[in-house]
Design a protein that fits this description.
Elements lengths: L3 H6 L9 H10 L1 H17 L8 H12 L2 E2 L4 E2 L12 E2 L4 E2 L4 E2 L4 E3 L12 E2 L4 E2 L4 E3 L3 E2 L4 E2 L4 E2 L8 E3 L4 E2 L1
Parallel strand pairs: 1-3, 2-4, 3-6, 4-7, 5-8, 6-9, 7-10, 8-11, 9-12, 11-13
Antiparallel strand pairs: 13-14
Helix pairs in contact: 3-4
């Protein structure tokens, strides 16, 4: 049995737990609605439910509403935040920890080389990926990391650092 209450409330900030503020968030919070779309799609994909046929429709809604491609096979942690949910791409093997903030036009993808098995990033808790940042390949990003705008991360980053540039370097 699916616990739909936890699916709907997974990404709601504590300040929005009142019914009126939650309704406002549900109706007008685009970042919350993208996260909710991902949670529902992931839940339906993992369940032996008759409603699995709805998954492609949820995926199409991502493309049309937000120009995003967040794979339902990716593992996104709790309380994810999308402040500006436009153009975000998260590949199917990506693993993102709890409390991340992902801004617009961010890509978490594979290295894209042919012949090799595709590898995806492993991102820790409380990571902030600013606008246009790219995390490519099988890199590991530690906890409490800030990746600057338009940075391209192709190497591992330890916990608690700030990185920027092409390729990203620790500041």
């Amino acid at each position: 049995m699916i616990d739909w209450r936890s699916v709907f409330l997974e990404d709601v900030p504590p300040s929005y737990r009142s019914p009126v503020r939650y309704l406002k968030l549900f109706l007008f919070g685009q970042g919350y609605r993208l996260a909710l779309n991902y949670r529902i799609g992931r839940t339906l994909l993992e369940s032996p439910s008759i409603f699995r046929f709805m998954v492609p429709f949820l995926k199409r809604a991502q493309y049309r509403k937000w120009s995003c491609d967040v794979s339902f096979h990716a593992s996104l942690g709790r309380r994810i935040t999308f402040p500006h949910p436009t153009g975000i791409v998260i590949g199917k093997g990506a693993v993102v920890g709890d409390d991340p903030t992902i801004f617009q036009n961010t890509t978490i993808g594979s290295h894209g080389r042919r012949g090799d098995q595709k590898q995806y990033a492993l991102i820790g808790d409380r990571v902030i990926l600013y606008a246009g940042s790219k995390v490519l390949g099988g890199v590991r990003i530690g906890d409490d990391v800030v990746v600057g705008a338009n940075a391209v991360v192709t190497r591992d980053l330890p916990s608690g650092v700030r990185a920027a540039g092409i390729p990203a370097k620790v500041l």
